Amino acid sequence: MSDCLFCKIIAGEIPSTKVYEDDSVLAFRDIAPQAPCHVLVIPKRHIADVNGITAENSAIVAHIFQVIPQIAKAEGLENGYRVVSNCGSDAGQTVQHLHFHILGGKQLALEMA
Q1: Which of 10, 24, 55, 80 is the most buried (most CB within 10 A)?
Q2: Can you tell me the distance from the alpha carbon of 68 to that of 55, in angstroms, rounded to the nearest whole number?
């Protein structure tokens, strides 16, 4: 999508601090971190949100969840981490491109906002 922020990052039009990349996934540091480690993991193929996951594209989500532990280990998150995906504006999704937040590096609050 031409107006999607994350698609522009994938295309190299907007810089990012990459921590992982392969043929189908890109992971980079969040520009407004909510924890000492805050990495976004996105599919290179545009999927708007969790509601856009289908039988045809679900393999990329499975791949993302295979990659997340590798990223967490490389980031030194031995004591645990959180994986979050917001879906829709009421949930706080600000970029309409499926993404997963890896949050860690400190004791995270247990309550829901």
Answers
A1: 10
A2: 21
